[in-house]
Amino acid sequence: MHPTRRDSRIRYPSSQHIKLRRILLLAADLPFDHVTPLEGCPDYTLYRLRGAPPLRGLGCRSVGTRDDMTMTREQCEKFATIWAEAWNHRAIDAVLEHFVEDVVFTSPTAAAVVGSPVVRGKQALRAYWTTALRRITSLHFTVDRVLWDPASRELAIVYTSEINGSAKRVSENLTFNEDGRVVTAEVFHGV
């Protein structure tokens, strides 16, 4: 039996596993080179990576010069789906894996949680999200669409946020560096 979207048995790798690049949760439609199932695990669960390159900016690729980092529509949709699934499972480290250490994150919710709408740095962002998640009893993000601006390397994930029984439309705009990692993020509510 393959796990479903809301299957509580799905576990994301710890940050230590991510740093060591030893395990990764993959879905059936996410092929990577050098990936084999762990012994005793069914297909599409945990895999061991042997000789795989770093997994920065999942779905991003560099075309031509380093300034030409771009994403296809399919890659944008795949990134957004994985991003939403990580949030739906409250896997903060899986979300943060795509961010640089000195990320700048802006959200109106941050002002209510940490006293400022701007959060600077990955550790501060982890602390903000951890505190915010403690206040939330139910959370589910459903991606509605994605928009990619190759000139600014900005991905807008437009989604429906269902938190504690209340739904609203949100846009999370992520700007990537030339290595495919998020350097800035802005959240807009009521889009």
Explain what you see.
There is one protein chain. With 191 residues, this protein is of the alpha+beta class. It folds into two domains: 1-55, no CATH class; 57-189, Nuclear Transport Factor 2, Chain: A, CATH 3.10.450. Helix content is 25%, strand content 32%. The chain has five helices and nine strands, in the order αβββααβαβαββββ. Strand 7 (154-163) and strand 8 (166-176) form a beta hairpin. The longest helix is centred in the middle third of the chain and has 16 residues, at 73-88. The protein starts with 14 loop residues before the first helix and ends with a strand. Residues 1-34 and 41-66 have low confidence and may be disordered.
CATH class of the largest domain: Alpha Beta
CATH fold category name of the largest domain? Nuclear Transport Factor 2, Chain: A
User: Portion of residues in helices?
Assistant: 10-25%
What is the helix/strand order?
HEEEHHEHEHEEEE
Can you count the helices?
5
Features:
191 residues, alpha+beta, 2 domains, six-stranded mixed β-sheet, three-stranded antiparallel β-sheet, globular, disordered N terminus
Short description:
This protein folds into two domains: 1-55, no CATH class; 57-189, Nuclear Transport Factor 2, Chain: A, CATH 3.10.450.50. The chain has five helices and nine strands, in the order H-E-E-E-H-H-E-H-E-H-E-E-E-E.
